[in-house]
Design a protein that fits this description.
This protein is an alpha/beta fold and 303 residues long. Helix content is 33%, strand content 27%. Strands 3, 6, 7, 8, 9, 10 and 11 form a 7-stranded mixed sheet that branches. A hairpin with a 2-residue loop joins strand 1 and strand 2.
């Protein structure tokens, strides 16, 4: 769906992207993570055909962003970090304006507005002015404007910034529903906890390059990540786990993060073997922080 090849982007005083190459699969939600200033927003704007790269190419749904920007815009939704809404317009009028701006025919606009409002949970707010909405509902309206034309790809830059816990949960549910409805999403953030609920792939960008050179798969329903903790250090922990078919993401003498089957019998057998070999197993549980674990495994453990 999305292919980036050796992308370079330069500002007058700095090079923001340094030979970025990546692929994003169809109907996935991919996290784009990294510290402030790493190049996340610049990369998103290049993906959205809003910036022309110095060199390299971006292909979205088979179209080159440099050669076919208007066609790209018709197939893509983009929500920037700082988005604007017309506070004096109702939700219906905001969505209508967005629909007409994306070229939806006037005869089809009402139906498109109804569908977008339904997808973002604003059918009961169609006659409310956007300036009267809460932060979370305004975020939903902004996403509604970005998807009213039924894009294939949706790019979101820091979508959960400033939202309360309930609004963040609602956002997670919405993004999963959009993916299940056929969209491909790329969500940028520097706060990993915001992405944990819905992203299955992660791209780490640091100083304008992709850490590790490619996207990292962080969630697999059949083979989840499991954290093992030992009460007594053992230098042979990693070797022992590898010999029993576990994929070791990272390990030291007291901990190991592994990718292993969800099969209960196989997991119980591994615990028995660890204990039988003299390992003092203090913890053996599925990791609840897949993105965070994968991030620090790639760029280094947090201090």
């Amino acid at each position: 769906m999305i292919e980036v090849e050796d992308l370079v982007y330069e500002y007058p005083t700095a090079r923001a992207l340094r030979g970025v190459s990546l692929k994003v699969a169809d109907r996935t939600i991919t996290a784009l993570v990294g510290p402030n200033g790493a190049g996340k927003t610049t990369l998103l704007r290049c993906l959205a055909a809003l910036e022309d790269p110095y060199s390299g190419r971006v292909v979205i749904d088979g179209l080159d962003t440099t050669h076919s920007p208007r066609e790209i815009h018709a197939r893509m939704g983009y929500l920037p970090d700082f988005y604007g809404l017309y506070d004096d317009l109702t939700v219906r009028r905001c969505l209508t304006y967005a629909a007409r701006s994306h070229g939806i025919a006037s005869a089809l606009t009402a139906a498109a507005v109804q569908k977008a409002a339904g997808r973002v949970g604003l059918l009961d707010r169609l006659e409310s002015k956007s300036g009267e909405l809460s932060r979370g509902l305004r975020q939903r309206l902004a996403i509604g404007q970005a998807i009213v034309h039924e894009p294939h790809v949706l790019l979101l830059d820091e979508p959960a910034a400033g939202l309360d816990p309930q609004a963040r949960r609602d956002l997670s549910t919405l993004l999963i529903a959009l993916r299940d409805g056929g969209m491909t999403l790329v969500v940028s953030s520097h706060i990993l906890a915001e992405l944990e609920d819905y992203c299955s792939e992660m791209i780490i960008i640091e100083n304008g390059v992709i850490a590790g050179g490619k996207a990292i798969k962080v969630r697999d329903d059949a083979r989840p990540r499991t954290m093992i903790e030992l009460a007594t250090a053992r230098s042979d922990l990693k070797e022992f786990l590898v010999a029993r078919g576990a994929d070791v993401v990272e390990a030291d003498q007291n901990h190991a993060l592994i990718v292993f089957t969800r099969n209960a019998g196989a997991r119980a057998k591994l615990v028995r073997e660890l204990v039988g070999a003299g390992f003092d197993v203090a913890g053996f549980a599925e990791s609840s922080k897949a993105l965070e674990d994968a991030y620090f495994a790639q760029v280094g453990r947090a201090p």
